[in-house]
Amino acid sequence: MADKKYNALDINGPNFNPNLYLDKLFKECTLRQVMDHENEIVKDTQTLHSDMQTLVYENYNKFISATDTIRKMKNDFKKMETEMDLLASNMASITSFSDQINSTLHDTREKISRLSGVHTLLQRLQFLFKLPATLKSRMEEKNYIQATQDYLHAQRVLQQYGDLPSFQGIKTDCESILTELKTELRKQFCNPRASAKELAESVDLLLQLDEPAKELCLEFLSCAEKRLSEQLVMLKDQIEQRDIIEFVDLGCSGFLSDLCLVVASFHDMFINRVNSDSDNIENSTATEIVINAGRKQCKAHLQILKMHFADMLTKARQTLTTPKLISQEDSSKNLNELLNSLIVTIVEKIKGVLQDLVVFIMPEINFAQKPQFKDSFCVDNVREGLIVCFMHHFTATARSFCSTGTADSKVPPTLLLLLSKLCLDFRNGSVHFLLSQTDELFQINPKQNVALTNENEINSTMQESAQGLLNYYVRIQGLNCSQRLVAHNRAEDCPAVMKRVVEDISAIDATVALLYEDQGTATEHSSDSSRKTHSISVSRHQYRSNWSSYTPNHLDSTVVSNMHKLFSERIEIFSTVEFSKVSILTGIIKISLKTFMECVRLKTFSKYGLQQIQVDTHYLQLYLWRFVVDENLVHFLLDEILGSAVHRCLEPVLMEPSVVDIICERG
Amino acid sequence: MDDNSVIYGLEFQARALASQLAETEKIKFIIGTQSLKQANNQIHLVEFNEEISTIKTSVFHHPDGEIWKITTSPIDALKLATCYNSVTNESSCTMKSAILKLPVTENLNNIDNLELATTLDISLLGSEIKTTEFHPIEANKSVSVTDSHVVLWDISESNGKNILSIPLEGKNNPKFTTGKWNPHQNCNQFTAATETHLKTYDVRSGDLAWNIDNVHSQLLRDIDYNMNKQYHIATCGDDGFVKIWDFRQTSQPVYSRSDHSHWVWCVRFNHFHDQLILTASSDARVLITSAASVSSENNSEGCITDENEDVETKQM
């Protein structure tokens, strides 16, 4: 038993082998033990047997009872089935019966509904027939409100069937009572003791009875007038009898309070009530008219401003073209004044217009307080329609001067410069001033209103126009100068032409200096007086060092100049200029020199031609450096011009620098 | 884009570049150098292979002088015309023009001179020759533009025969700057540029056919016809503008842009996609501009905003 592998010996195990078990038993046990064991086993077997029997009995009983139950159920269902059938047949008969009843009752029901209809009609008729009587009784009771309500209740029917003979009597009766009612109500007007509330009531009732409001109004007023005049007469009578204080008291308490009452009740009854709806419509149309007028006014002003602006421009143009003939100095002095007067007049003109328009929104004026009007007038018309629109016109006009295609070639370049500066000045102050002035006068809050044109927006277009004009100016002046240089290239006469070019540039410099101060960059030049000679000597040094490479044996290889080009910055010729004198002059000089260079490259030079160029470039070198931001730029360009000339020369022999110096000083 | 660029260096400065018009299969360019050292001048034939991004080149001597202008024949791929400046003695030089022929077989070993096909003698018809333009369809005709004349040649023989010469008339001694055949209308018109004006002559009679004055505010540098649109001609000039004109209505250009910051020297339509306009300027840039609104491919959806693209920036 100990060995679990051999559970064949386990008497309760499934693999029990009786023979093995017996063998083992016989081997290991004594006789007595065997006999004991046998008894034990027999006893065990018996208990097991009896246990099994009791189990079987118990379960048997259960089976039997289950079978019994099932049989009983079967019987019960059969019975139920028959009962259900019976139920169904009963239901069917019930349905048929109910249908029968329904059909028989149908006619009766119709009759009943018709009868009930007749009944209500009769009731109404009765109401109608009784109406005159009720109305009369109400009149007697002075219950006018109820009377009116009753009448209104029946009014529609009376109107519809009033023509029938049977109703005619009733109708006439009612109408006579009604007129009575109306007169009664009207009497109330004249009742001196009637309170405002009572008056209002009677007016209300009369209005409900379709009395024309106007007539009522007149009647009411005449009654009031009568009453008041009576009071006046009474007062007049008493004027002599009474003490003055008493009289005033009486007057106040009696007449004046009555007057107030009349006014108040009139206001309550007619104006507030009757006109309450039409009032709004009238109001809005009125506002619209005012808004229209405002818009027209603004447009007219805008037109005037535009015309004025155009006039100013023509005038400026004339003044710019004429005095130049007399003397250079004179015109230059005028230029600054001209600019200032332009700005001042434009700003003043706009301010005048604003003052003119501000009348529209004076606080005394009724429509000015309407938000609808205020919004549309202040924001849409004045600010956007007039001021902003004018600014746009301003920039557009300015830009039309420099837009190619429409540009007029006869426009004096100085006008471009002037306009450019004008735009810039506007950007730097006037725009802000005018806009804030407008906002202040017309109580516009630019932060609240997102749709408003931003100041920055206008400023940036101003800036753009100014830039465009300035670029155009530089371009034109550059071309004018280069035209001289090109012409010079044909006729080969000494620095006379170069001298004129330098003179031209100095003249431009003088003009530009009037409008554009030298900021920042000025220090570079004016720091010390010795700088001039210094810079020249330095530059001349560089200058020669570059050109020394052009000795005849090196001439073919322009390696040095190429190297120089590689390491120098690329020069934008027609680049945007800044708003400063040097930048403008630099632009002009750059354009001129570039043109000079291109012309040189298209030529073939003799030895003397080359030497002429050498003199020319040296001369320009001496005089142009002071106008530009970066002297090296001029050096570089002039260098390249001479380099190109050397390259295009059949017999490239340069003069001695000392000789060049002497020629230039003499020129 | 930049990765695909191929660079070909020249020994000398050059001003003349032309594509081989008659060559339809390959992309070939001809370049002429400009050096006053007469013997050094060369003509380079550069073939670009698009697929493998390589170039094949051949070099020829051009000892007659520095080349100012090269044009190629639209009919014969081997023919080209040069305008060159020839130094006669130490200090003077003359402009000449000639029609040259490229060799059929390639000779890789030594540098040849080009075979001279036709010489054009302009000595009586002006001092400077600006260009020689081949007739678009007739192989035996060409036109030379000198500073004062437009000259029509018969070039079938080795000496050009002057058929017609049209003088330029006007105050202040005006000069022609360049010229081009009108490829439409049976190629009977030749357009020349003078100062800021365009003048078109009928080469059958020598009469002025039509003209547009003041196409640019400054000197007119180059013109080009649109191959696909009969009446369109592009112009460019010193004012930095590129304009396209319809020469039936000459008051306003149909297209006008100013993208260059200096003189525009050269303008060309793309022959196939004629909205693409190539321009070269002395601001050291070459631009391709898309002018879709005036293209022959322009359909009803029309005026798409012109987009501008810098394709290549060339440092001079």
UniProtKB/TrEMBL annotation, chain A:
Record-linked Pfam families: Sec5
Predominant location category: Golgi
Compartment annotation: Golgi apparatus, trans-Golgi network
Any one biological process term the GO annotation gives: retrograde transport, endosome to Golgi
GO cellular component: cytosol; EARP complex; GARP complex; membrane
Annotated ranges, domain Exocyst complex component EXOC2/Sec5 N-terminal: 4-318
Family matches, as InterPro entries: EXOC2/Sec5_N_dom (IPR039481), Vps51 (IPR014812)
Protein keywords: Golgi apparatus, Lipid transport, Protein transport, Transport
Subunit details: Component of the Golgi-associated retrograde protein (GARP) complex.
Entry's family note: Belongs to the VPS51 family.
Function noted in UniProt: Acts as component of the GARP complex that is involved in retrograde transport from early and late endosomes to the trans-Golgi network (TGN).
Protein name per Swiss-Prot or TrEMBL: Vacuolar protein sorting-associated protein 51 homolog
Species, as recorded: Aromia moschata
UniProtKB/TrEMBL annotation, chain B:
Family listed: Belongs to the WD repeat EIPR1 family.
Full protein name: EIPR1-like beta-propeller domain-containing protein
Mapped WD repeat ranges: 213-255
Gene3D superfamilies: YVTN repeat-like/Quinoprotein amine dehydrogenase
Organism of origin: Aromia moschata
Keyword field: Repeat, WD repeat
Keyword Repeat: yes
PANTHER family referenced in this protein's UniProt entry, alphabetically: EARP AND GARP COMPLEX-INTERACTING PROTEIN 1, WD-REPEAT PROTEIN
